[in-house]
Amino acid sequence: MRGKFTTHPRQFHINIPAFVCLILVTSAYAALSACAASPSNHSYPLDPEGFIRHWLIAGPYPNPPADPEPRGFSDDLLKHLGGEANIVPYAGLTDKAVFVADKAKLIAGAGATNAWGFTTTKTFTVTWTPLHWEQEDPIISLDKRYEQVNDWIATFAACWIESPTDRAVQLRAGSDDGYKLYLNHELLGGLSLARAAKRDQNIHPARLHKGLNLVLLKITERTGGHAFCLRITDGRGKPYNDLKVVLEHPATKFAAKCKNLDAVDVVDGDGFAKIRLGRTPRFPGSLPLFVGVGFAEPRACRVEVMVADSAGRKRFSKVFNVQLQPSEAAVFRADVNIDQPGQATVTVVVKDARNETVLARLARSFEVLDVAQIEQEYRSLREKLAATRAREKQLQQKLAPLNEKIARLRKHIAGQYARIEELYARRWRLLAQRYCAKSRSIDVPFSPASSPRERVCLNGDGWQIVAATPRPGYYKIDEDRPPQAGWEPGWVPMMAVEKYFRSYFFPAQGKESPYGPTMTLPCAPKGWRLSDARLGGGIWYRTTINIPSRWRNRRVLFETEYASYRIKVYLDGRLCGTHKGWPGKISIELGNATPGPHELLVLAQRAASLGEVPRTTEQFYGLIGDVYLTAVSDVAVTDTWVLTSWRNAQIEARIWLINRGSKPRTVTVDGQVVRGGRTRLRLGSDQVTLNPGVITEVRLQHPWTTPRVWGIGGKYGAPTLYHLVTTVREGDEILDQHFTRFGFREFWKEGFHFYLNGKRVFIQGDNVGNRISSRPQQVIWQHLLRDSCNINTIRTHFEFQQGMYARVADELGMFIIPQWYPKLHVKGRGEDRKHSLSVEEFLTTPEHRENLRLYAEWVKWLRNHPSVIIYSTDNEIFTQAWDTPEKLSENIRNDRLGAVYGRWVKELDPTRLVTRDGDEGTWGKIGKWQEQPPADIANYHYPDFNVRDLVENWQWTYEKPVLFGETLYCSYGAWNGWIDAIPSQVAAKANWCRKVLSLYRDLEVSGWVGMGPGLDCFTELKEDGSGNPWGVSPTLIAKYKADGVAEELPHYPYFPIEWPTLSGPGLKPEFHRFLSVYGYGSVNTYFPTLPVYVPNAVNAAYKQSTHPMPPLPSRRPTEVLLIVTENGKPLPYAWVILTPASGQATNSIGVRADSRGRAWFVLDEAGTYKVRVEGKPRVATVKVKAIPFKMEAGFDYLPRISLEVGQ
Amino acid sequence: MRAGMLIVCMLAILSGSLYLTADQLQADSRTPQQTYAACERLKAQIKATQAAVEKLQYKIERAQAAIRNYEYVKAENAKCIERLEQWVESE
Questions:
Q1: Which fold, A3-14+252-369?
Q2: What ipTM does the predicted assembly reach?
Q3: Interface contact A423-B63, CB threshold 8 A
Q4: In B, which residues are within 8 Å of A419 by CB distance?
Q5: What dotted CATH number matches A747-979?
Q6: B61/A contact by beta carbon, under 8 A
Q7: CA within 20 to 30 Å of A814's CA: A339, A769, A971, B38, which one?
C-alpha cells in the first residue's frame, strides 16, 4: 500500500444529480447532516412565534389531478436529485420538472391534454432559490410565483435548523393545499387534501439533533391559493429563541470555494473532506481510496488517514504534515485491501502541526458486500418476484369477474329504470280508461270577457327620485316625509345600491374609500353621473297618475313584484300601506284613487335604516320590480294556484277571492283551461258567499288525461303553456276574470332519481352568476346554456329576479331551482354566535315569524311556474367548509333551524321537492346530523374534491337522490388569485370539467349544478382579444388600469346600454359590465355590431361530457314596441291599452309610454289586439307576431308599430 | 388419460430441474458485480410488480364497493318497482 498527498486541478465534470445519488446510497450523509455548523455560517432567527421565514424554495413540480388524489403527493418528485427523503438542497441547485401531455386527450382545436392547459409536454427548469418572507402574516404565499402554471403543482421548501442541543420539539405546519414534511430525511407525515393554509393545522412531534437539521416541506396545490407556514415550538406550543435557520449547508459552501473538489462529503468544524473508497458495489479485495481534505483557513496541519474494516481491524494508516487550504484540498490516493465484508470506515483526523489538538474528525463508512450474501439475495429476490407476479395474476383473475358482475348489475339496473318508466306509462293509460271521455281535452273557441280587471305598467321614465333625508344614526332616514327640494328625473324599476358596491354596477367609485363621495370614472359616458339619491338609507320615487273615469268605483291597487327592503306607498300624501321583505308579489290598495290626477309616492328603504340585520347582503334595494296599477271590482281574485298531477292525471285550481266591499256577496266561480284561443278543459264551477274583508278559497278539480304536458323538450314534452281562466259572476254580471299561466307537468323523485312526466331526468344545472339581469339577456342566456352546454336547470342564488328567470324558463323549457334564505339570529346577535338563541327559543321570536311569512310569499310567488321544480330553502348553513369540532354544536343548531324552514316550505307546497344547498343535515349517514324526517334530496357542494367517497357510489352514500348543488368551482377569480380566463387556465378548467362531468354522466348522478358555465364558459383572455366579443385583451386591461380608460374601447368595462325605451315590463340595467373574468359578462346581449358570444374550451367540455339535451324551441317572448304620436309628435306618458281580439288569454293590458311616446309590451300570446290610448277616441288594430329566436344581440328583433292618435 | 397425466408431471419435473440447473450454471459464471446488477434489476421489477399489485388491490376494493352499491340500488329499485306495480294495478 502506498499513497501520497498532492494538490491538483479538478479532474472531472460536476454531475450533481448522479453525485447526490451516489453518496446517498452509501448513507454516509447522515453524518454530514448532523455535523456542527461552521461558525462562519450565516443564520437567521426564527420569528417570535417560532415561524421559519427563510427558506430555499423549488418549484413548480407537477401535481396533476388523479384518482383518488393528485399525483404529486405520493410521487417522489425529487427522484432526479436523489429523492425527497435524500435531497440535500442548496441555492442554485437545479432540476427539471416535466409537465406531461397526453396527446390522446387532445380535443381538436380547443382542448388541452393536461391539467395545466398544455397541448404538448413541457419541461421547466427548477432552481432552488432563497425566499425571505417579511410580511406580517407568517403564511407564506406562493400564489403567482410561477409564470407558467398556478394550479395542480407542487413546491418544495427547505432549510436547516441549527440547534444548540438535542431536544424534543413540535413542527407545526399549515398548507394550501396538501403537504409532506421531512426532518433529517425522515418523513414525519403529511396530508393530501384541499384547504386554505392556516397556522398550526397539523402538529408533528419530532426530535432535533444538536447541530444542523434539514427540514423539507412539500406543498401540493390543487386549485386556488398556494401557501404554507411552519413553526417550531416545544410541546406546549412555546417557541424557542435559540434555534437558527441556515440556508446554506457548510459542505456546499466549502465545495464551492475549493477549486479541486467537486463535492464535500464531510464537515467538522473548519475541516472538510471528500472521502471515497471504491464504487458501489464494493466487494472484498483492493479498493481505491481517495481523500481530499481542506480547512477553512490556511493552516499547517498533521493529517492522519486510517481505514478500518468491519471488524475494526486497521487496514491502512498514514500520517502526513501538510499545509491545508480552503481553496485547494490536499489530495491523497491509495489502494486499500479490504478482505472482510461489512462496513469499512475511513477516518481523517486533522490536528495542529504540533499534534496537540484535534481540529477536525472526518469519517465516512462504506458498505463492502458479501459475495455469498449477494447470491443468496439474488435467489431470494427471484422468488419474491415470482411470488409477486403470481399475486398480480391472482388479483387480475379476481378483478375480471368483479368487473363482469358490475356490468351485469348495471345492465339489470338499466332494465329496472325502463320498467319504472313503463309502469308510469301504463298507469297513465289505465287512468285514461278509467276517466273515459270526461277527462279528455275539449276544443271550443275562447273569448275573454270584458271585466273590471285592468292593469297598467308604470315602468319608465315618468318618475322623479330624491334621497330620503338623513337622520342621526347608521343609515337612519326620515321615514315619513320626502324632502321638498332636490327631486331629479328618475325611472322605475331603478335600483339603489350600497355605496361599497357601486363600482359593481356603475362607472363610479368612492373617492379615497369605497364609502367615500361618488367619483365618476373616466370610462363613463360623457355627462353621466350616479345620483346620490341611490346611495343612502332610503330613496323616494314619485310620479303623477291619471286615473281614468271608467275606473270609478273600482279598487285601484299598487302592485309590484320586488321591492327591497321596506316600502311605504302614499297617494296624494296619504299613507296607503307598507310592505317589508323582498320576495313575492306586493299589492297595496290605493284608497281614494278617484278619476283624475294623483301623486303616487313610494319610499324604499334599506333594512339598515330600520336597524335590522339585512337578510342577504344589501348590495341593492329600491323599486327593482315592475310597478303596476291594477283596477278590480270589490269582489276580485287575489291569488290562484294551479296544481297538476301527471301521476294522477288531475288538475286542481285553488282560487282565493276577496270581497273589499261592505256587504256579503254570493258569487259563482268557474274555471276553464285555455290555449291558443281555444278552451281545452272546463274545471266546473262553485258558488260561494264572500263576507266583507274575508279571503275565501275555492277549489276546482278535474281529471285530465290528454293535456299537452309541459317539458324540457324531446321525450319530456315541449314547453306547452296553458292559462287558467277564473271567472267570477254575480248573476249575469262578470265581477272579475283572472288569468293564470301554467304548464301541466309533474316533477318528483322515485328511488334515487328524478322524474318529469314519467321519464327519468338528470338535473344538469348552472348557477347564474348574474346579479342583475334583464329579460332579453335571460332569453339569450338560457338558449346558450342549453345549446352550448347541455344545461337544463338554472339554480338561483338569492337573485331577486327569480320570477323573471322562471317566466323565461317556462316559455323555453328550462328548470329553475330558486333559493331563499332565512334569518337565523335575532337582531344584534348575529355577530356573536355563541349567544345565539337555541332553536326552540328562536321559534318563539318575531324573526321566526317573519321568516315564515317571507317563505310563504316566496312560494306563492313561484308556485305557478312549471319550470320551478325544487325549492332550495337556504345555502350552506352547515357545510364541510366550516365543519370544525369546536363549532359543531353551533353549526348543528343553525342547520336544524334551516331544516325547520325546509319543512315549512314543503308544507306550503307539497307538490314540489325541497332541498337545502350544501347542508350536512341533508347528507344522511355521512353528515354530522340527519334531518328528521329525512330531506327529499341530499345536497352536497363540491364533491369533485373527493370523488371516491362522495361520488363513485353515490346511491349507497346518500340513500336518496343527490343534487351536487355546487360543483366545479369557477377557476378564474378570487379563489385563484384573479388569474383571469387566460388560455392555460381555461384549458385546465376544460380538462377538469371533462373529467368530472363525464364521471357524473357515466355514474348517472341524479343531479348537479355547475358553478359553472356562467363563470367558466364563453370567455378567454387572449392576447389578440379574440376570446370575447368585446376584444378585451391583456394589453387593453393594462391600459385601462394605467390610464383609467382604454382608447380602443373607451367605455370598458362599463358598456352603456341603449334601451329602445324604459317603459314596459322588466328591469333595464344602465350598463353591461364586463371585466374579462366571468363568462356571463362576456356574453353580449345588447350590442348588435358585436358577436353574441365566443365559446371556449369549457363550453365543449360541458357539451361533450354531459347527457345530451334536446334544443330549446326557437322562439322569443312575444313583444312589441308601440310608438304613439299625436299629429306627428310623440305623445309622452300616454297609457297605451291592448285588448285581445283573437281569443288571447288576457285582460286588457296597459303600458304607460315613456317621454317619447314609446310603450314596450311583453305578451303571453301573439295575435290580433285592439289598441287605444287612454283619453283618445281612436281604436286601431295591430297584429302581433310570434318572434323567432336568433342568436343576435341588440333589439332589432323587437317589432315596432307606430300609432297616430291625432285628428 | 393416466399416461397423459404422467407425461405432464414428468415434463413439469424436468422443466423444474432444468430451471434449477440453469440457474446454478448461471450463478457459477456470474461475477459478483453482475449478480449485484441482476439484484438491482430484480428489485426494480419487484417494485413495479408490487405497484401493479397495489393498483389491482385498489381496483378490487373499488369494484367491491361498486358491487355493494349496485346490489343496493338493484334491491331498492326492486322494492320501488313492486310498489309501483301495486299502485298501477290499483287502478
A1: Immunoglobulin-like (2.60.40)
A2: 0.79
A3: no
A4: 81
A5: 3.20.20.80
A6: no
A7: A971
